[in-house]
Amino acid sequence: MKYILMMNATKANWDAYAKWSKQDLQRNVAFMRAFSKELKDSGVFVATEGLGWPNEAKIVRAGKDGEPITDGVFAESKEFLAGYWIIDVESTEQAYKIAARASAAPGLGGTPGSMPIEVRQVLSSFADLGL
């Protein structure tokens, strides 16, 4: 089963992250790279991407004539997607264990963090819905 592990944060969280010391940022990035390599080496890795700054994000809806109507930049309290992994594992429990490891990425001073990671099954077809 495929799952998406999504890192969610508020703009305030992201702004604080952007102010971390170079050493803290390097430690966190090193963890993320090693974590993704470990997922690849274990055979469960499908994809991963970090996403741009939240001040670049827009919500797009179709207007009356199909033209794009944008909304954003997000308010301070709005949560946004910071990045994700897609994994292919045997069980939901395995996905949860992997998400917990991602959540513990090092934070300020190298202390383990507790970033919220949303875990959702990736539905590859309507059969996944029982239809």
Describe this structure in words.
- It is flat and about 50 Å long.
- The relative contact order is 0.28.
- The chain is of the alpha+beta class and 131 residues long.
- The strands form two sheets. The protein has a four-stranded antiparallel β-sheet. Strands 3-4 form a two-stranded antiparallel ribbon.
- It has three helices and six strands, in the order βααββββαβ.
- The model has no long low-confidence stretch (mean pLDDT 88).
Q: Terminal Cα separation, in Å?
A: 17 Å
- Low-confidence stretches are none
Q: Mean of the pLDDT scores? A: 88
Number of strands: 6
> Can you give the helix content as a percent range?
25-40%
Strand order of the largest sheet: 2-5-1-6
- In this structure, how is the largest beta sheet organized? 4 strands, antiparallel
Could you say which overall geometry the principal axes of the C-alpha atoms support?
Answer: flat
Sequence-ordered SSE layout with sheet pairings:
Layout: E1 2-10, H1 11-17, H2 22-42, E2 45-50, E3 59-62, E4 68-71, E5 79-88, H3 92-103, E6 117-121
Antiparallel strand pairs: 1-5, 1-6, 2-5, 3-4
Short description:
The protein has 131 residues and is α+β, with helices and mostly antiparallel strands. The chain has 3 helices and 6 strands.
Looking at this protein, list some descriptive labels:
alpha+beta; 3 helices; 131 residues; two-stranded antiparallel sheet
